[in-house]
Amino acid sequence: MSKDRTIPGAPATGAAFGGGRAVAANRLPTAPRERKPALAALAVLLILAGALATMILVTKSGNRVSVVRVGPATIAAGSKLDASQFVETSVAKDNSINYVPWSQFSSILQGRTTYNTLVKGSLVTTDMVTDQSGNSAGQAPGTTLMGIQVKQGHYPTGQMYLGDKFTLYTDTVTAGQNGQNATANWVAQGTVTLVNRDDAETITATIAVPTDKVLTVANAADLMLTKTFG
User: Fold this and answer.
1) Residues 6+ apart with CB under 8 A from 230
2) CB of 155 within 8 A of CB of 198?
3) CA–CA separation, 59 vs 199, rounded Å?
């Protein structure tokens, strides 16, 4: 009767199966997750900043009004007005400027004859559609009220007060020959009086213009105002 023999140095029965558990038991414990309070605080700040920005936008949008703006074509003095000549636009509310509210277009403008040239793209104020026979404040005889837009850099910096005098320049662009750049030709059109304006970078202003210069101003490629002293 033979006896089971074991090979010297061989693991005992079951050691191969138990060895896995022994290895697992010898692993180092996993370190706990590190908390980062700074990141949590940053996330809270970002949420608060977003909420604040939303509140500011809502507040600003609540301070805007729908007003009347002249459409893509200049309306000559003496024209009869109708809705097809105008578009609706939104501007910041400013009680110092007598914009024509879009909701009141029918009662203020529809069917009326304008006594002034209304330049394309300009915002319409009640001063611009007033009968010239009772000259507005700051409007001299022989002048016509008209709305203009002057881009930043083409009007004096600092305060511009109602009644201030300015020299108005018009720019008629001459196309260059043989691919050369166009040249600007600035021509003084006389002194004008500021009747109204807004506070945008490209200002929309109502000015009293010498009546014989109205068409020149209306057809100009660009405009510029310089302060007149004395």
Assistant:
1) none
2) no
3) 19
- Total H helices, total E strands in the chain: 4, 7
Per-residue pLDDT of the chain (230 residues; tens, 9 = 90+): 545 555 555 555 554 445 555 555 566 666 566 666 777 777 777 777 777 776 666 555 557 889 999 998 888 766 788 889 999 998 887 777 788 899 988 888 888 877 667 878 888 887 777 654 445 555 677 777 777 888 888 888 877 887 888 888 988 765 556 655 556 678 888 888 887 777 777 887 778 888 788 778 878 888 889 888 75
Q: Give the start-to-end residue ranges of the domains of the chain.
A: 69-227
CA dist 214 and 121 (Å) reads 16
Which of 94, 54, 57, 74 lies closest to 200 in space, CA to CA? 94
104-143: burial string, b at 16+ Cβ within 10 Å, e else: ebeeebeeeebebbbbebbbbbbbbbbebeeebebbeeeb
